[in-house]
Each structure stands twice: as structure tokens, then as C-alpha cells.
Amino acid sequence: MRTKGGVMVYKGWSYGGRRRTENSLIPLLSSIPNLLVFFSFYLTIYLLAHFLIFNNWTSKLRPEAASCLISYFHGSPAVFLAGKALLSDQNRGFASTNTTFQTLVLDYSIAYFLMDLIHYLLFYPSDILFIAHHLATLFVFMTCRFVVFHGAYAVLVLLIIAEVTSFCQNTWTLACARRKDSEFADKVILCEPCRFEPCRFVLANSLTVKACRAGPVTGRLRFSDC
Q1: What is residue 77's predicted lDDT score, i.e. its pLDDT?
Q2: Residues 6+ apart with CB under 8 A from 24
Q3: Which residues contact 56 (CB under 8 A, 6 or more apart)?
Q4: Alpha-carbon distance 85 to 78, whole Å?
Q5: Which of 9, 52, 97, 151 has the highest count of CB atoms within 10 angstroms of its CB?
């Protein structure tokens, strides 16, 4: 952020009412290599799950199993990466500007949600709830990453809360798929949800309230004005 002719300017946004259009595409263009690498990573895992890892599962179950596998590779790594990105920022706060590491984590998650969204559109186009969830998540992540350049702290905190239990959720989903032919899977189904869902519900709601009360971003552009 700097001052130009009495107008505060930050990475393409002009807080005095003007926008520096010549810089508006820079964040998007600089992010394309990361997005391509991460998306290729998830696509490779997804295809391996379909045609190799779960090739002996029925055609009805393979898509869901493949989705769970890419979620395994996103969820827990995203928790650790987001945590490191938050702790490495000395100026961290719910309305702080995004750091380079934080934007990298956003790219990692954006690629995952794009891949999983394609999965749902191809195999479960009637699952409006999950499709809407992924679209809303992508809107928040991409707005934070490419438009306002603020708020990654708040987004990553919520990402941690959402994904810290994803390992349990994916394990439970896979167990549901195999409960008819596995006694162990049936036991997993009975014990998993009661452990992780209450924790996620309480933490996510409390931190969402804190994010909404964090206040405005410096200048006219408001990130959290609930």
C-alpha cells in the first residue's frame, strides 16, 4: 500500500475511487503456474484412484472413493500449511493483508475445490448442496486471493477448522461405502461422527463470529463488514 496523489493504492485497488487497471491482472497471472501444478496434482491422484487404487470397487462407488482420496491429500496438508502460514505472519489478524505464503495456501485449496467441483458436476450433478458449497467456497477464496488481497488470515483459520476433521470425515464416507461387506467399516460408521462433528461445529461458529467482528480493512474497501 502506498500514497499516490493523495490516494491510497494497494495492489490494483485505488481507495480514492480509481483502480489501477494496468495491475489488476498481475495477481491472477502470477498464480496460474501454481494453480496448474496443484490442479494437475489433484487430477493425477483422482485418475489413479479411479483406474488403479479403487479399480476393484463398483463403478457406483469409485467416484466417491476418488473424491475422498483427493480430499485426504488436501485436508490434512492444508491444515499444516495454513497453520504455518498464519504463524509466520507477524502482522496476523482477521483484517490483515495477505502474505505470499498465505496466497500459496489459497492456491492449493482453490485447485482442490475446482477439481472436486468438476467431480460433482460430472458424477453428481443433482447434488445441489455440495455444488453450491464448492461454488461459495471458491467465491470466498478467489475474492480473497485475486480481488481484495486481504483477509487470508480469517479464511485460513476457517479452513483449518473445516479441514482438521476431514480425515475422519473421509474415513467415515469410505466406511459407509463398504459397510455391507466389512464388519470393521460398520464399527467406524458408529463411532466417527460423534467425535469430530461437535468439535467442528463449536469452533467454526465461534471463529466465524470473531471474523465478522474484526472490523474493516484500511481504506474504503471493507473485507469484513458483517
Answers
A1: 95
A2: 12
A3: none
A4: 10
A5: 151
To the nearest 5 percent, what fractions of the chain are helix, strand and coil? 70, 5, 25
Cα distance between residue 182 and residue 55, in whole Å = 18
The pLDDT tens digits of the residues spanning 28-87 come to 666 788 899 999 999 999 999 999 999 888 888 899 999 999 999 999 999 999 999 999
Whose CA is closest to 42, among 118, 104, 125? 118
CA–CA gap between residue 159 and residue 33 (Å, rounded): 22
Write down the residue that cell numbers 477464496 correspond to.
Answer: 141
The answer to whether 112 touches 38, Cβ cutoff 8 Å, is: yes
- C-beta neighbour count of 174 within 10 angstroms: 21
The continuous run of DSSP H or E covering 3 comes out as strand 2-4
Report the distance separating Cα 10 and Cα 7, nearest Å.
10
Cα 198 from Cα 85, distance rounded (Å): 26
Q: Tell me the one-letter amino acid at 172.
A: W
The domain locations on the chain are 28-212
Using one digit for the tens of pLDDT, what is the confidence trace for 147-168?
Answer: 888 889 989 999 998 898 888 8
Q: What grid cell was written down for 195?
A: 467425535
Q: What is the pTM of this model?
A: 0.74
**Length of the chain (residues):** 226
Q: Which of 4, 149, 162 is nearest to 71 (CA)?
A: 162
Range name among 135-139, 156-160, 168-172, 211-215 with the lowest pLDDT average: 211-215
d(CA 170, CA 174): 6
